[in-house]
Specification:
Length: 431
């Protein structure tokens, strides 16, 4: 870490709302004794353009006492002076001159900036307070600035006790514990975006019902899995169906179908699933599916669910099952038996491969036969030799090259490093 501020930022900075010329420069020494917030951002970056107004609003609204202790410096990742000038007009703080590319590059390397927007907060003695500044601003903008001005970060955490689960990317919206440790409760309405630790749950009075999130690596009964879904919607009407109907008549399993109207692969798969589903209903144990929408608007949700002969969870009520199943993409059909055993995490591929036989097998509460190693399909994996996509059969990976995979045929051609055979995952694993 640099021992002096001018070593970190150079001798001069550009004042806010000024063009980048000699008349707008100020001495870097004016920031001595302040908490420093380095804002790595660019005009061309959409997430940055979305974040900057939020940061600017919070900075303008905090009191002078905070501004006397803290300042923000824009470190541009733009590609030309014109974009820098246009973007800097939106910022009520200071900037590293666009022409000082040497310091910009060194700052990015020093603070391991791998993506933007990025906020790195350092103390007056130039010790890092937090590199998680963007998330802290999204968590509580003015409170984050106040904490930083005191030399503290907004987020905090504690060591897990016993078998407590650690929610790596989640913070409590009340006390700002991140990662959130232990029991996690949230609103069934995704628009609320509220997450509470066990301590804050007892103090909070929220307008909607709060539910306990399920720990992803633990097994729960189907009854427990369905508790977060308040009711189901008839596929053709707005009629509400009690969720517990999914537990009647000795139902052996339920498929949770995560899909969206905007997703082309989903739109291709849904008609296939509908046709196979209708054929499977003639079985003595018909198969049951719940549609959980990943759409963004009610119109798309209603239009899409009308194409399906099975019930749907209400719009924005799928946060708990989505977090529990930890699926990597849509369409995703995850099949669970009545006692909570995962019968398949690859329902999409299983239906494509086995057709109605897949649904008939699941309806009996049974798993499909595992594909042989030569038949296994590695979702989202491409052979770097022959470009087979997805890679089917034995998969060999190079631990040195990183993200380098070969099929069995290409492995036989040789590679400069020792390759490792990847074992076929079970129903609890993802590739």
């Amino acid at each position: 870490m640099a021992t002096k501020l001018n070593e970190l930022l150079g001798e001069e900075l550009v004042r806010h709302n000024e063009s980048d010329d000699e008349s707008s420069r100020i001495s870097t020494s004016q920031l001595n004794g302040k908490t420093l917030v380095l804002y790595f951002s660019a005009h061309w970056c959409q997430p940055c353009r979305h974040f900057t107004p939020k940061l600017a609003k919070a900075f303008k609204e905090v009191n002078d006492d905070i501004k006397n202790k803290l300042d923000i410096v824009f470190v541009s990742c733009d590609e030309n002076q014109e974009d820098f000038n246009e973007y800097f007009k939106e910022m009520p703080w200071k900037a590293l001159s666009f022409s000082d590319r040497d310091h910009s590059k060194k700052l990015g390397e020093k603070f391991n900036v791998n993506g933007i927007p990025c906020l790195v907060v350092v103390s007056p003695s130039l010790e890092i307070i937090t590199s998680d500044g963007v998330d802290e601003i999204y968590g509580a903008p003015k409170e984050a600035l106040r904490k930083w001005s005191q030399g503290k970060r907004l987020f905090w955490t504690r060591e897990p006790r016993n078998d407590e689960y650690v929610w790596e990317y989640t913070n409590c919206t009340e006390c700002f514990m991140k990662p959130l440790v232990g029991l996690r409760h949230g609103c069934t309405n995704k628009e609320c975006q509220i997450d509470l630790c066990e301590t804050c749950l007892s103090k909070n009075k929220h307008e909607h019902p709060l539910v306990e999130y399920l720990i992803p690596d633990r097994q729960y009964s189907l009854e427990k899995l369905l508790l977060s879904i308040p009711y189901l919607l008839d596929p053709k009407t707005e009629e509400k169906i009690e969720t517990k109907t999914m537990l009647k008549n000795d139902i052996k399993s339920v498929g949770f179908y995560f899909s969206a109207h905007w997703c082309p692969p989903c739109r291709r798969f849904t008609p296939e699933l509908v046709e196979i589903y209708k054929r499977a209903q003639t079985n003595s144990h018909p198969f049951h599916i719940i549609f959980i929408s990943c759409d963004e608007d009610q119109e798309s949700f209603n239009s899409y669910r009308s194409e399906m002969p099975w019930p749907a969870a209400p719009m924005n009520s799928g946060a708990v099952p989505a977090e529990y199943f930890q699926f990597s993409g849509i369409p995703s059909l995850i099949v669970v038996s009545s006692n909570g055993t995962i019968l398949s995490r690859r329902g999409h591929e299983d239906v494509a491969r086995f057709g109605v036989q897949a649904l008939q097998t699941w309806s009996r509460g049974e798993k499909l036969a595992r594909p042989s190693p030569d038949e296994y399909e590695w979702r989202h994996v491409i052979c770097d030799g022959c470009q087979m996509s997805p890679l089917i059969g034995q998969r060999y990976s190079c631990p040195i090259c990183g993200n380098y995979d070969l099929c069995s045929a290409c492995e036989k051609k040789g590679h400069e490093h020792l390759l490792v055979l990847q074992l076929q995952p079970d129903d609890h694993d993802e590739e």
